[in-house]
């Protein structure tokens, strides 16, 4: 009996932090939302959890506006867009909220510009025909700003690659996407040691690099990069699907 | 065994931690004391390991100090903080880090802000390409788009913009920071709406300051419109346009990796449009123009931009001139050209700009006993430097040179009411010139929700010019991220554009105060303003006004806006000799102005309408006439006080429709458009003409119902 009591005492001593963390996961505490924020917003995060994270970030930002809170709020909206692709209204709203969050940041970093360009690029789907050329120009400008500010930022290259990937060739697209995706996969995931700084994007860069080669008819290269990416990121859904198809 | 393992686990961590150090502290803004969330805190010996401050600006950094280690705290928008921790450092107490805000080091943003005026927080309205081309009443003309704003108080249908009850001549118009003194085509033409000389395909933005124009620009007294050309490269294109009165071509191509060249030319003739709209052109027997322009922009080095623009126009027209003493054809011909060069360079914390402009024109006009030939020459240069002392505080200083010369030679009526060819006239050659050397400073300070701007502009010795000082104060308070109040006031010195035959360059002193409110969201925009001003020159004018505006978007496809404005204006003078001038002076005493825009967008097209209903403009009635025995012509007798009569109220509705077609194969586009102006064919009175003895007054009308259509094709 004593043995079990001691074990219980050990558990109480060592595990309270973990227990609290789990409880927080159930009901996202605003104050702790920035802790390991990157792990809370991934392709596997359910929409409900994303909304909880977004709400917690909103709550914090209402008290104290901050560039990191805006960034992660926008990133949550970026993911919410992909969870709502069948519901166009919700998807568009997510993009608009994300864009507004980033645009109001007065001291934008390369990370802000890169994410902003991704959101704005997706938002072109909802733009009227008259506005598309101009909005598309703004998307490209933001990717260029991101690269100008941080030439060795993975997500800046990823955003520029995405911009080129989705730009029709008549408008000068499809020329530099592969270069930027290759640069992205060669760069470190994170250069800023700040724990609130993002580190996402490399798996996606692999996926789009493979798709770029596939689009160009270079199936072998597409397969090579998809396989390499999947080896590094075995849970990435898009890479799995690509490898299966190639 | 289990017991031993449990004890080992339970106590091993604290035991290990005894050799480690935990640095604790708080990071705040040195100026405001605000606790900073997300600051990066690390040691110099461990560049890849860091912690971040929490919501309370607090941090804890568990570490083992290396010899000579330094604590480094960084946060964007602040100068990095370094604190030497010494050997060991075990005795570090709570560390308080107070970060110093510094000029924004984001070069990408610096480049953007360098192209904006320092007083950008006090802009009341900004129009871009889209807002211009989708404005039903703008006819894709940047200045006509401004005319639809609530602050525009035009009592005519021209592109010369009156802002908040001031004469259009007092509205400063700048293109890439260079003043454009004559910005409309057919400047003296009445009878049809005139257009500005600006090509919408070159325009990036139009900033409108309807009151208290920032003193970083030149002599703008009443209000200011600043146009900026687009400098972004785009793929090669060729555009052709064909309309009832106009045909044109524009071509653009990238130059190198960072440059863009656009050239265009237009030819306008009145034959077809007169055939379709005979009633609107009853008095206009002939009109046409040819214009051409070229714009080149390129990036120079890092964050430097060069823009070159050249423009030339040749225009002519003839219309039936009717006055009590003459019924004859007035003829006008003008050739004009100007060039503008601007260079902007940005660094972290500073930017520099140089703007140069030169223009020349020759015009001849005449009717009856009046004949004149005019030659104008304008030269302008300005050098501006802005320094960001911190994110919150910045100053812009500059020096400008502005020279205008007007030469007029010809024959002029000796009596203003006698214009027949046989009436007395005199010959004269007149030269008017003014040269202004001015310096200015504008300092802006931002603190939390407040923005404060103070500007001073003055003459620079030792030039031969009488000294003056203009000053302004701008206060902006952000009620929320979406709404603000803007209080501005000041005293401004400007000069009239003279009618060189009669008056020299006249100095205007304008004192004004305005309070503007704006609310902006995706679906709803509101604004309101109250203002008062006093303009002193030969005549004094007092103006009070109020305006409100609301714009709402419904279902993303329908946009509706309405604006209401009221202006009370009065001309005053104590000099009886000058009082005669007031008789024909345009006045803006308009108890009500209502404007409404409706736009409905659908897939591949748009339809829209613009309606304006306002009080008729004041005019000075003729009471009768006396025969002048010397000349044999009747001299009109006016009421003692100017502007006591009022023209009938003005009402006009325009409809527009456009259809956009894009080729799926090659992205080429075709835009078809049609405009029906004054749909109800309202007879809006612009003035009265009189019989020879002034016993009969006949109304002259603004544009009657008018149809225009055309197409624009763009090949990529």
TrEMBL record, chain A:
Q: Does the keyword Signal apply?
A: yes
Keyword list (alphabetical) reads: Signal
Q: Which domain of life is it from?
A: Bacteria
Q: Which InterPro entries match?
A: TPR-like_helical_dom_sf (IPR011990)
Q: What start and end residues bound the annotated signal peptide?
A: 1-21
Protein name as catalogued: Tetratricopeptide TPR_2 repeat protein
Organism encoding this protein:
Hymenobacter roseosalivarius DSM 11622
UniProtKB/TrEMBL annotation, chain B:
Q: Which domain of life is it from?
A: Bacteria
Q: Which organism is it from?
A: Hymenobacter roseosalivarius DSM 11622
Keywords associated with the record = Receptor, Signal
Protein name, UniProt field: TonB-dependent receptor plug
Q: Which residues form the signal peptide?
A: 1-17
Q: Which Gene3D superfamilies match?
A: Carboxypeptidase-like, regulatory domain, TonB-dependent receptor, plug domain
Name all TonB-dependent receptor plug domain ranges.
Answer: 146-223
Any Pfam family hit: CarbopepD_reg_2
């Amino acid at each position: 009996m004593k043995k079990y009591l001691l074990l219980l005492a050990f558990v109480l001593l060592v595990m309270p932090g973990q227990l609290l963390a789990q409880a927080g996961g159930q009901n996202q505490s605003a104050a702790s939302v920035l802790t390991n924020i990157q792990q809370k917003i991934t392709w596997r995060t359910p929409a409900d959890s994303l909304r909880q994270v977004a709400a917690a970030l909103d709550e914090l930002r209402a008290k104290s506006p901050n560039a990191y809170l805006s960034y992660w709020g926008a990133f949550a909206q970026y993911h919410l867009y992909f969870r709502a692709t069948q519901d166009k209204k919700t998807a568009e709203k997510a993009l608009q909220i994300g864009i507004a969050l980033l645009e109001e940041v007065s001291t934008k970093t390369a990370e802000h510009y890169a994410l902003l360009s991704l959101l704005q690029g997706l938002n072109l789907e909802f733009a009227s025909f008259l506005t598309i050329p101009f909005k598309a120009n703004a998307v490209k400008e933001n990717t260029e700003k991101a690269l100008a500010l941080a030439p060795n930022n993975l997500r800046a290259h990823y955003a520029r690659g995405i911009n080129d990937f989705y730009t029709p060739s008549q408008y000068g697209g499809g020329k530099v996407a592969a270069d930027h995706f290759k640069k992205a996969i060669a760069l470190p995931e994170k250069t800023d040691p700040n724990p609130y700084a993002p580190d996402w994007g490399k798996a996606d860069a692999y996926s789009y690099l493979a798709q770029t080669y596939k689009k160009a008819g270079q199936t072998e290269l597409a397969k090579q990069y998809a396989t390499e990416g999947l080896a590094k990121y075995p849970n990435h859904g898009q890479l799995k699907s690509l490898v299966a198809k190639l | 065994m289990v017991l031993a393992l449990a004890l080992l686990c339970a106590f091993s961590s604290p035991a290990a931690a005894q050799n480690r150090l935990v640095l604790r502290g708080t990071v705040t803004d040195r100026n405001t004391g605000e606790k900073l969330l997300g600051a990066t805190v690390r040691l110099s010996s461990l560049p890849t390991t860091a912690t971040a401050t929490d919501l309370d600006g607090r941090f804890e950094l568990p570490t083992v100090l290396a010899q000579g280690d330094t604590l480094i705290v960084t946060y964007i928008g602040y100068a990095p903080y370094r604190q030497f921790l010494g050997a060991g450092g075990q005795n570090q107490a709570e560390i308080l880090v107070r970060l110093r805000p510094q000029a924004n080091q984001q070069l990408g943003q610096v480049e953007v802000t360098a192209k904006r005026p320092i007083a950008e927080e006090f802009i009341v309205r900004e129009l871009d390409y889209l807002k211009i081309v989708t404005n039903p009443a703008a006819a894709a003309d940047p200045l006509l788009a401004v005319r639809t704003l609530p602050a525009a108080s035009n009592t005519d249908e021209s592109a010369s913009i009156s802002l908040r009850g001031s004469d259009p001549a007092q509205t400063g118009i700048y293109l890439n920071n260079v003043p454009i003194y004559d910005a409309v085509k057919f400047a003296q033409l009445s009878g049809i709406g005139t257009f500005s000389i600006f090509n919408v395909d070159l325009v990036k933005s139009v900033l409108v300051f309807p009151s208290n124009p920032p003193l970083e620009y030149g002599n703008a007294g009443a209000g200011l419109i600043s146009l900026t050309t687009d400098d972004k490269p785009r793929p090669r294109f060729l555009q052709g346009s064909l309309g009832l009165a106009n045909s044109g071509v524009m071509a653009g191509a990238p130059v190198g990796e960072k440059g863009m060249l656009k050239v265009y030319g237009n030819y306008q003739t009145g034959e077809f449009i007169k055939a379709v709209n005979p009633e609107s052109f009853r008095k206009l027997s002939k009109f046409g123009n040819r214009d051409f322009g070229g714009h080149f922009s390129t990036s120079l080095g890092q964050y430097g931009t060069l823009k070159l623009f050249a423009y030339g126009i040749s225009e002519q027209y003839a219309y039936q001139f009717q006055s009590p003493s003459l019924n004859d054809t007035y003829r006008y011909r003008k050739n004009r050209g100007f060039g503008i060069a601007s260079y902007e360079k940005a660094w972290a914390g500073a930017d520099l700009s140089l703007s140069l402009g030169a223009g020349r024109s020759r015009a001849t006009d005449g009717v009856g006993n009046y004949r004149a030939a005019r030659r104008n020459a304008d030269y302008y240069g300005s050098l501006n430097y802005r320094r960001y002392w911190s994110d919150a505080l910045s100053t812009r200083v500059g020096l400008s040179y502005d020279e205008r010369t007007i030469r007029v030679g010809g024959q002029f009526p000796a009596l203003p009411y006698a214009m027949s060819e046989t009436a007395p006239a005199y010959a004269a050659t007149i030269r008017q010139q003014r040269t202004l050397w001015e310096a200015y400073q504008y300092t802006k300070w931002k603190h939390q929700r407040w923005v404060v701007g103070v500007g001073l502009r003055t003459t620079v010795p030792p030039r031969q010019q009488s000294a003056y000082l203009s000053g302004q104060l701008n206060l902006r308070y952000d009620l929320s991220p979406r709404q603000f109040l803007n209080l501005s006031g000041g005293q401004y010195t400007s000069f009239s554009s003279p009618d060189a035959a009669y008056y020299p360059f006249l100095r205007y002193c304008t004192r004004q105060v305005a309070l503007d409110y704006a609310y902006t969201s995706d679906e709803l925009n509101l604004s309101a303003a109250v203002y008062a001003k006093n303009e002193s020159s030969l005549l004094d004018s007092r103006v009070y006004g109020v305006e409100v505006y609301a714009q709402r978007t419904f279902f993303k496809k329908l946009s509706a806006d309405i604006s209401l404005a009221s202006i009370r204006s009065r001309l005053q003078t104590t000099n009886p000799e000058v009082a005669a001038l007031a008789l024909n002076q345009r006045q803006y005493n308009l108890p009500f102005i209502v404007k409404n825009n409706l736009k409905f967008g659908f897939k591949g097209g748009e339809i829209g309408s613009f309606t304006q209903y306002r009080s008729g403009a004041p005019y000075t009635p003729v009471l009768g006439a006396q025969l002048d025995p010397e000349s044999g012509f009747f001299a009109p007798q006016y009421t003692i006080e100017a502007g006591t009569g009022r023209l009938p109220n003005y009402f006009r509705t325009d409809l527009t429709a456009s259809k956009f077609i894009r080729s799926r194969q090659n992205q080429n586009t075709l835009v078809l458009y049609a405009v029906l102006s004054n749909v109800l064919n309202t007879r809006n009175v612009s003035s009265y003409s009189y019989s020879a003895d002034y016993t009969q007054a006949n109304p002259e009308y603004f544009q009657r119902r008018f149809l225009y259509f055309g197409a624009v094709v763009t090949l990529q």
